[in-house]
Amino acid sequence: MSSTSIFFLYYCKMVLYVALSLCVLLSAGCLGVTPGVPCGVPVTSSGHKRIVGGHVAMNNAWPWMIYIQSGVDGSNVGSAAVIHPSVLLTSAQVLQTTSGPVKDFRDWKLYDSSYDDSVHANNRGVQLYHIDHVIIHPQYNDTNLLNDLALIVTTEEISFSNATRPVCLPDATHRYATGDVCYLAGWDDQSGSGNAGRLQQVDLPILQDSVCMKHWTDVLPETEICAGYESGHKDFCTGDIGSPLVCQDKSNSVWYIQGVASSGGDCKTADEPGLFEDILVYRNWIQSTMAAAGYTYQY
Ligand SMILES: *[C@@H]1O[C@H](CO)[C@@H](O)[C@H](O)[C@H]1NC(C)=O
Ligand SMILES: *[C@@H]1O[C@H](CO)[C@@H](O)[C@H](O)[C@H]1NC(C)=O
């Protein structure tokens, strides 16, 4: 072997060594390694169509959606949103029964966004998770629904996939305005035909608080968002309680959880807008409560 080719081999080894060291230093990006998935970015677009009444969502369009099945009677009590690999955000009331807070969550089940309610246990490929414990907002008032929020800490870590990704918490730069059209997804049937099956979606415009005050006595404008319709039968149902109201940042197409469904009309008969916990107001509580439980919000 000539001295030139030995030098060449040595040179190649050096280049490889430097490149590998850089990879270790930069690890994200190099070799296709990503530290985690981004929040608020589904692999499938919702389509943004104007829709009339409830509408079956496209696969993977709302990947932060989690179906909550009660361990008491096996019914769908509502939905939650993935905000961390171990933490879901939902309303406090879905984790309570008429006889008070639930003590034992062992038989409760959580399913990912591909769950189909019409075939129940026969959902091939749907991920099942369990509740380790819940953190109800300490000042939750079950009479006027003030602070109707809770965190669910899952037993298993949520595995991110096309069907499962986190949604972003809003910050001061992600505010909603009256007239913005946001979306609510859930497994209850917004059209009233009785069988939702797959995840449904509905588009809901943000309304002035005064519109909700015409329909409801317990409106809490400091902490609630009014959204929906006064006519047209687009509404949410009891099974949609806890579902995230998500709004998209038009500049980067990222989805933010602006609200959590707290109360609305009887979806089958009434034309009444709904009330949503205003997540911008609660962002500090959510983040500090997560941190205290050992889960840092990553975005
Ligand atoms: C809960 O709300 C009801 C109705 O507004 C009110 O009468 C009651 O005092 C509240 N409870 C607490 C503990 O603040
Ligand atoms: C995830 O979605 C992307 C984009 O739609 C697609 O190319 C890919 O095949 C999907 N992966 C799986 C495992 O379905």
TrEMBL record:
<dbReference type="GO" id="GO:0004252">
    <property type="term" value="F:serine-type endopeptidase activity"/>
</dbReference>
<comment type="similarity">
    <text>Belongs to the peptidase S1 family. CLIP subfamily.</text>
</comment>
<dbReference type="Pfam" id="PF00089">
    <property type="entry name" value="Trypsin"/>
</dbReference>
<dbReference type="InterPro" id="IPR009003">
    <property type="entry name" value="Peptidase_S1_PA"/>
</dbReference>
<dbReference type="InterPro" id="IPR001254">
    <property type="entry name" value="Trypsin_dom"/>
</dbReference>
<keyword id="KW-0732">Signal</keyword>
<keyword id="KW-1015">Disulfide bond</keyword>
<dbReference type="InterPro" id="IPR043504">
    <property type="entry name" value="Peptidase_S1_PA_chymotrypsin"/>
</dbReference>
<dbReference type="GO" id="GO:0006508">
    <property type="term" value="P:proteolysis"/>
</dbReference>
<feature type="signal peptide">
    <location>
        <begin position="1"/>
        <end position="32"/>
    </location>
</feature>
<feature type="domain" description="Peptidase S1">
    <location>
        <begin position="51"/>
        <end position="291"/>
    </location>
</feature>
<protein>
    <recommendedName>
        <fullName>Peptidase S1 domain-containing protein</fullName>
    </recommendedName>
</protein>
